[in-house]
Amino acid sequence: MDNLKETRVDGELAYQGRFLKVQRDTIQLPDGKRTTREYILHPGAVVILPLLDDGTVLMERQYRYPLHDVFIEFPAGKIDQGEDPLLAAKRELEEETGYTGGEWQFVTKIHNAIAYSDEHLDLYLARGLKAGAAKLDEGEFLETFTATIDELLQWVREGKITDVKTVIGIFWLDKLRAGDWKL
């Protein structure tokens, strides 16, 4: 696989905002030529698949400004610097929904934008949920609701759910429910 590897020659931070950083690197291609790569630096995030005792799934609706639309998503959020991903998942679930989970299992790690970001997302299944009061960040607005796995699958088929982390999480829930995949 070394015949595919690109090697960093040098680089610089091209942009640093409050949330995003963009790195610009000069790289050497496998054929020896040089070019640049620009990509978003991201500390990683967690995604929670919150399964209620009755088999329904706790979901969110949230407006996403870059696409100027409301999206159906799983609870999720950025991992703070030095934070354990499982603790981040527990924190995000409680902050966004008010729910706490009694049983947590790591599901998988995904990379959602491999061509232009180093971001990864750790997916966790949360069960044994207990309701509480949400603690939304200032400027964060969302609605929670429940749906069945079958409803979620139908919404993926219909294009009502297009968020990649949510689509992948729904497929995982379906496979786990069917016993096709184990954690």
3D architecture notes:
With 183 residues, the protein is of the alpha+beta class. The chain starts with 6 loop residues before the first strand and ends in a 5-residue tail after the last helix. The strands form three sheets. Strands 7-4-9-8 form a four-stranded mixed beta sheet, sandwiched between helices. A three-stranded antiparallel beta sheet has the order 1-2-3, with no helix packed on it. Helix 2 (149-158) packs across helix 3 (164-178). It contains three helices and ten strands. It catalyses: GDP-alpha-D-mannose + H2O = alpha-D-mannose 1-phosphate + GMP + 2 H(+). It comes from Duganella sacchari. Residues 38-169 form the Nudix hydrolase domain. This is GDP-mannose pyrophosphatase.
Summarize the structure.
The chain has three helices and ten strands, in the order E-E-E-E-E-E-E-H-E-E-E-H-H. It is of the alpha+beta class and 183 residues long.
**What characteristic shape results from the CA principal axes?**
globular
- Main structural class: alpha+beta
Give the SSE string: EEEEEEEHEEEHH
> Major β-sheet, in short?
4 strands, mixed
CATH topology of the largest domain: Nucleoside Triphosphate Pyrophosphohydrolase
If strands are numbered along the chain, what order do they take across the biggest sheet? 7-4-9-8
pLDDT < 50 runs, ≥5 residues: none
Number of strands: 10
Write down the CATH class of the largest domain: Alpha Beta
